[in-house]
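Friendly challenge for the regulars: who can give me the structure tokens for this chain first? No prize, just bragging rights.
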Amino acid sequence: MLGLILFVFFLPQLIPSRSMKPDPKEVEDFHELARKIHGDSIDSTEDQQYSQFELLEPSRENAVTENSLFLFDPNTASFNQWKKLGLREKTIKTIQNYLSKGGSFHKPEDLKKIYGLREQDYLRLEPYVRIAHERKKEFTSVEKKDPFPKIRDSLRAVEKDRNNKIPIIELNNSDTSALIMLPGIGGRLANRIINFRNRLGGFYSVDQVGETYGLPDSTFQKIKPFLILGSQPVLRININMADAARLKQHPYISWAAANALVAYRQEHGPFQRVEDILRVQAILPEQLKRLIPYLSID
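First reply, four minutes later:
Bragging rights claimed.
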């Protein structure tokens, strides 16, 4: 038993041990393969692990600038698209708030107006900005286009045909039945024009019709091309014979001016010329110009 125990104890020393040292040729083949893959020598297990990490896990900044950029319109980009472009959530909310209040981007430089947008982010995104100007121009042109061209052409044709049927009116010879044939003139306006003409003593200018009370200028401009004075002369007032009551009936002579004319005539005698009424302080040069066609001295 003692001999058997001693044999088992010394048996490992009698068997030659195998070396665990790696084969030098296998190590050299491994390094050669690594150089072909990475382009440089890998001298240690630690260097190999570091190079593999760099190859498989690029930095976040390189991932955004190289892999995540794409063409975009800042006026229509969604929250997720801005996020993918690498902007912070706070900046994205600022952009969307700006757009919701009616703001818009017309050129890439407008992005600089956004508070909180870092300059490096703008420089990175600026080459990828594409704003749809052409679509906006097309929409604007459609808005301004007349949607009913045929209807408007028909109305113009009817108006032209109607104008061809409107008679020419002699202002100083016509009555209300003739005037109501004019566009925009009803019975009430026709009566006002006739009454104004009678108080004046007749029209010496077509423009005087525009002074009729209640006649809109737009209506007067429509009927003006169809008006002529006619052959009837205007009635004149003899300023050396008429009393104040007669003078004040004229639309261009006020009550104060009528009394002043009579008082001046009574003190200084008859007027030698119509222009002499300018000696009356109540008569102004502009008033004389309007009155001369209606005044006489005999």
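Residues 40-63, 137-143 have pLDDT under 50 and may be disordered. The longest helix spans residues 149-165. Your move, everyone else.
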